[in-house]
Specification:
The protein is mainly alpha-helical. The chain contains five helices and no strands.
Length: 70
Amino acid sequence: MKRNNLVSARKSKGWTQDELAARVDISRAYLSNIERGVYSPSLKVAQRLSSILGLSTDTLFFNDNARLSS
């Protein structure tokens, strides 16, 4: 399942995959695979993404109907 909220949150910050991956300390390829739904992030990575993007893990990964502010 594609992680639309994760992609939207990243883009709302104006960050590329490279920039977000560097902030989270993961590879761009791994982030891309998470965004495309190929991989699910570990709990540690999900928490770092959540913290950096300022959204709950539920919003980023489980709530397909969440409205993200720009």
